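Forum: Protein Structure Q&A
Topic: Joint prediction for protein chains with partners

I've read a bunch of threads here and the consensus seems to be that you should model interacting components together rather than docking separate models afterwards. I'd like to see that in practice. Below is the full input, 379 residues plus whatever partners are listed. Could one of the regulars post the assembled result?
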Amino acid sequence: MATQLDYYAILEVSRTATADEIKKSYRKLAMKYHPDRNPGDDAAEAKFKEINQAYDILKDEQKRAAYDQYGHAAFEGGAGPGGFDFGGGFGGGGLGDIFEQMFGDMMGGRRGGRARTGNDIQTHVEITLEEAFTGVKKDVRVITRVACEACHGTGSEDGASGVEVCPSCHGAGKVRAQQGFFVVERPCPTCHGAGKVVKNPCKVCHGEGTIEKERTVEVQIPAGVEDGTRIRLSGEGEAGGNGVPPGDLYIQISIDEHGIFQRDGANIYCRVPLRMAQAALGTEIEVPVIDGSRTKVKIPAGTQTGAHFRLRGKGFSVLRSTARGDMYIQVTVETPQNLSKRQRELLEEFEKEAREDVKQSPEHTGFFRRVRDFFEGKE
Ligand SMILES: [Zn+2]
Ligand SMILES: [Zn+2]
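Posted by a regular:
Agreed with the consensus. Here's the joint model:
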């Protein structure tokens, strides 16, 4: 991935700039680099695009918060083609369900991502292509830390009243220390960064406020999801303990390979082998569709290996839409093996009649005609 400039730098504002300041700076820069004012200037045009891209993110409170926390990665994800690239063409569609799931409730208590939270958890779930087509609800088992019930997450035998502001760091969670010529900040050794100390630690969680537990989380995977997509479940990560809000749970979706179908975005490909005589005489075949139904495809006489047939609207589901892509059948003609005596006789007879018939096998005839010319030209 190419290095990307910081959106704040592009808009020439500080990271703490207000929405108004961002808007003002954007207007000024957009005017300056507008293509109408710089006809034929490619650099200005590129700059103009950059400015708009940066403004698209920073003007939106939620996207800005996501960007503050995760940088450009917030808008890349593992989504792959057709994913959630906000720099590009998502425009008309607005925010996706997944985007909302990923970043929507970030604003609740996590403004700008600066608040302390419990750890995020990563896990992954495998689904079948059929499940990706219909969408599916999955129970995901995660080993996580949850608030200790014995002390209600306070870490103290005496409940909330037993928790005091850390005397070493006065609640900051960090201490400054001289290291050679430098003053460095490091987590407070007394409270380990929590800013609070527990007088009489809870016996169940040893004052942590959290205990390890296996949890089952239900995740709704939408129809049309792409392989590699990450879904974020806000607040489903590890509990922070001592009243710190929990982190988030990230679930990466991987889609199993399918024995019949290959998927490319909204389209589905299916290779169907035909017997030689079927391809020569023409036929009608029945093929499976990802939705579990069947459909018929007419194969015209004289069909060659590699021929494609498009079945409109029989492809994959499209995220957040009732639309469907197309299905493509690609046929291969299978040369028969293990012939019976009778079959062999029939084919030998067939071959006698077929030999050198230009209309029957134009490619074959054309090729061997060029071969003849090749040798004759040499002599
Ligand atoms: Zn401390
Ligand atoms: Zn406890």
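The radius of gyration is 32 Å.
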